[in-house]
From TrEMBL:
UniProt-listed InterPro entries: FAD-bind_Monooxygenase_sf, FAD/NAD-bd_sf, Flavin_mOase-like
Function field: Catalyzes a Baeyer-Villiger oxidation reaction, i.e. the insertion of an oxygen atom into a carbon-carbon bond adjacent to a carbonyl, which converts ketones to esters or lactones using NADPH and/or NADH as an electron donor. Thus, can convert bicyclo[3.2.0]hept-2-en-6-one into the oxidative lactone products 2-oxabicyclo[3.3.0]oct-6-en-3-one and 3-oxabicyclo[3.3.0]oct-6-en-2-one. Is also able to catalyze the sulfoxidation of methyl phenyl sulfide (thioanisole).
Protein name: Baeyer-Villiger monooxygenase
The keyword Flavoprotein is annotated on this UniProt entry: yes
Provenance organism: Streptomyces colonosanans
């Protein structure tokens, strides 16, 4: 790698968002780009999360790119190893390897107003780029709670996203902290091997059956021979989820029937009424992400598992203490406490036109224009930005919509010509977010009676999209230049001029 490399586009991250952006750039005829990746391989969250039982809760044929169908998925819900292999395959098939720069963690990027470019410092060297596409993803940096006494715990401590494979849990007493999507996969995977498993449950989750099975050889052969059958399967999976959106976004009370199904699912596996009471949520189903598992409840009913209906509050030597005073002696503590979703760590490293970081700009909550751009940060885009998350479908659908927006953004820069940048107008950002937040008011995520990771510190839902994926695709199909200020490269010694300033100067002339 050269000491300093300038490219038209720098993509940050090589998960689904980053690789998807790279493929789209090549399909648009753009080859002057790099993908900056802090690790030594592609995959994003599917590279980092290798805990026992790690798998996706979205059907495989929907959790893959529409432009890269995979007829070889082994199961209807595939595991981590198969998803990562799929992403490696995408990198190979679309010839992305020459663009990948591993070991390049972004330390700081700053907008250069004179050159209309981003200057980027990484752990692997310096770069500059006309446009930055940030695809670090919301599930990239684990969140560890600040627990008094944790530093003095004599045993093993690790987060689910940084699983310590050198530590053998067999025969050990293990504390599992958290009951989210990772925990419900870890618990049944390690329960048969550990001597004791203590689950610290601050809030119970709604759990539905996971309709998972092996995809037969004849099915895979059919998909290989007739590719349209793969598209048909994907379309059916997508359509079913689009029909469900209304209940989440407009009529949460209709979800009561689903709650009854979830309670029946629990009752089949958990016969102890006291344990069922601990595991029954007091909020509307869907307010937190609905979890899928056939093995979680049976594992909790086993004699070597204790469910503590309280969060972990303190560690005293090898004793873990819950907020309700419950104590247990353990050899290891595993945190399934999620990620920094509503305050992405990358935001602290992005310095905009006015010298403020993106984190400072978002100090009162994340705000993005169409989930992609931020005012004061010209030619900077994010994939899976504010209010682009989903509660019931595949994020790949949202990623591909944002890739459409990215492609048209770059086309608009070409049409404008010369050294040019687009900066989202504050009023456009405010108008978009006002509309999103107004729609959010009646959704289950805001009215369901829970506190979830969808909400930021101010109780504002900056994570989820309050509509269908079709609506979002229509909203991001084209860039509206009226929502942007056009910046032109200044003459030597002059400050950057806006389109309005240029027009005024020409009028005076």
């Amino acid at each position: 790698m050269a000491e300093h490399e300038h490219v038209r586009v720098a993509v940050i991250g090589s998960g689904f968002g980053g690789l998807g952006a790279a493929v789209r750039l090549r399909r648009e005829g753009i080859t002057d780009f790099v993908v900056l990746e802090r690790a030594d391989g592609v995959g994003g969250t599917w590279r980092d999360n290798t805990y026992p039982g790690c798998a996706c809760d979205v059907p495989s044929h929907l959790y893959s790119f529409s432009f890269a169908p995979n007829p070889e998925w082994p199961r209807t819900f595939s595991g981590q190893e198969h998803i990562r292999a799929y992403l490696e395959h995408v990198a190979e098939v679309f010839r992305l390897r020459p663009h990948l720069r591993f070991g390049c963690e972004v330390k700081r990027m700053a907008w250069n107003a004179q050159q209309l470019r981003w200057d980027i410092e990484t752990s692997g060297g310096s770069f500059s780029a006309d446009v930055v596409v940030s695809a670090t993803g919301p599930l990239s940096d684990p969140k560890m709670p600040d627990i008094p006494g944790l530093d003095s715990f004599p045993g093993a401590v690790f987060h689910s996203a940084r699983w310590d494979h050198d530590y053998d849990v067999r025969g050990k007493r293990v504390a599992m902290v958290g009951t989210g999507a990772s925990a419900i996969q870890i618990v049944p995977s390690i329960q048969p091997d550990v001597a004791k498993l203590v689950l610290f449950q601050r809030t119970p989750a709604w759990v539905m059956p996971r309709v998972d099975r092996a995809i037969s050889g004849p099915e895979r052969s059919l998909h290989r021979a007739l590719p349209f059958t793969t598209k048909l399967r994907r379309g059916l999976l997508w359509g079913i989820r689009e029909l469900q959106v209304q209940a989440f976004t407009k009529r949460p009370n209709e979800l009561g029937f689903v709650e009854q199904l979830a309670k029946y699912n629990m009752a089949r596996a958990v016969k102890d009424p006291a344990l069922r009471a601990k595991l029954t949520p007091d909020y509307r189903i869907g307010c937190k992400r609905i979890l899928l598992s056939n093995t979680y409840y049976p594992a909790l009913a086993r004699p070597n598992v204790d469910v503590v209906a309280s969060g972990l509050a303190e560690v005293r030597g090898s004793t873990v203490v819950a907020a309700d005073g419950t104590e247990a002696e353990v050899d290891a503590i595993v945190f399934g406490t999620g990620f920094h979703v509503t305050g992405m760590p990358m935001a602290e490293r992005v310095v905009g036109a006015d010298g403020r970081t993106l984190a400072e700009s978002w100090s009162e909550g994340m705000k993005g224009l169409r989930g992609a751009t931020a005012s004061g940060f010209p030619n900077w885009m994010t994939i899976i930005g504010p209010n682009t998350g989903l509660g019931n479908s595949s994020m790949i659908l949202m990623i591909e919509s944002q890739l459409n927006y990215m492609a048209d953004y770059l086309r608009q820069l070409d049409v404008l010509g010369g050294r040019v940048a687009l900066d989202a107008r504050p009023r456009a950002v405010e108008a978009w977010n006002h509309t999103v937040q107004e729609r959010m008011k009646r959704t289950v995520w805001n009215t369901g009676g829970c506190t979830s990771w969808y909400l930021d510190a101010n109780g504002r839902n900056t994570t989820v999209w309050p509509g269908t994926t079709t609506e979002f695709r229509n909203a991001t199909r084209r860039v509206d230049l009226g929502e942007y200020e056009v910046l032109r490269a200044p003459r030597a010694g002059a400050a950057a001029a806006t389109e309005e300033q240029i027009a005024a100067a020409e009028a005076r002339a």
